[in-house]
Structures are given as structure tokens and as C-alpha cells.
Specification:
Number of helices: 2
Shape: globular
Strand content: 35-45%
Oligomer: single chain
Order of helices and strands: HHEEEEEEEEEE
Low-confidence stretches: 2-6, 13-18
Distance between the termini: 49 Å
CATH architecture: 3-Layer(bab) Sandwich
Largest sheet: 5 strands, antiparallel
Length: 149
């Protein structure tokens, strides 16, 4: 009976460790999602003729669309859209910094995509010891890399 309990305890602890989220994998999924969304937003901005902007917060981000408002043209947060709705990063994941065309953007500053927008964009994401960087490549596509060291 005691042997059965020990085997059961080992099995349960192994299952708990197996289902424990891996920060590197989780952050990689977020970096991939952000890279895909930035690429799609830039393409939609080009094709639709209406500029989209990306705005970082420490714990998430949003997309904004240039629209005509009661006060004239202005930037409005995209809501109710399947792709470009505001997003919170999971758990303790954070945006560490954003660089656009060689200058650091503060949280809340817009990075205008498409048209005559950015030539270079880099976003550093962190979760625990894991670090990822989402980048606009020279060909205009977006990708992500794991940052080591």
C-alpha cells in the first residue's frame, strides 16, 4: 500500500511539473502573436488607405485607427475587432522597451504603421528570465527572436 502511494505521489508531481507553464514558450507565443498582428495591421493600413497605429503599454498594447471624429481627425482605439482589439499580456509578461526608426518610444506613444509609417520597429518582451524581441525586417515583414545573455 505504501509503495502504491509513493508511485501515485511521483505521478502526480510529474503531472504538475509537466503542466506548469514554460515562460519561454509562453513569451514566444506572445511574440509570435504580436509579430503577426503588426504585419497584418501594416498590410491593412496599406490596402485600406487608413493609417493604423500601434500603442504599447507596459502590460499590453492596442491598435488605433485614424478617424474623423466630432472634433476633427483623430486617433481612436480599435474596439470590437477580432484582430486589433486592445490586448493585455498574460500574467507577469511585460513590454520592456519599444524602438521606432532609431528612437525609443515611451508607453502610450503611437507607432504609425503602413503608408509613410515606420521603416524600423523593435519591441522587447520579458517574462521572468525569458526575453523576446519582435522586429520589422528590412523586407517589411515582422518576426521575433529569442534574446539570450
Amino acid at each position: 500500500m505504501l509503495v502504491a502511494l509513493v508511485i501515485l505521489a511521483i505521478g502526480v508531481s510529474g503531472a504538475v511539473l509537466a503542466f506548469r507553464p514554460d515562460p519561454g514558450r509562453q513569451l514566444g507565443q506572445e511574440a509570435e502573436r504580436l509579430a503577426l498582428l503588426l504585419g497584418q495591421a501594416e498590410e491593412e493600413s496599406w490596402l485600406g488607405g487608413m493609417p493604423l497605429a500601434w500603442v504599447a503599454r507596459e502590460d499590453g498594447y492596442e491598435f488605433q485607427r485614424r478617424e474623423l471624429t466630432i472634433d476633427g481627425p483623430g486617433w481612436v482605439t480599435v474596439r470590437g475587432d477580432d484582430l486589433f482589439h486592445p490586448r493585455a499580456l498574460p500574467g507577469l509578461a511585460r513590454i520592456q522597451w519599444v524602438q521606432a526608426d532609431g528612437r525609443e518610444l515611451g508607453f502610450g506613444e503611437r507607432a504609425v504603421l503602413g503608408g509613410q509609417g515606420l521603416q524600423q520597429l523593435a519591441v522587447s518582451l520579458t517574462l521572468g528570465a525569458a526575453r523576446m524581441r519582435v522586429e520589422r525586417r528590412p523586407d517589411g515583414s515582422y518576426g521575433f527572436v529569442e534574446v539570450t545573455g
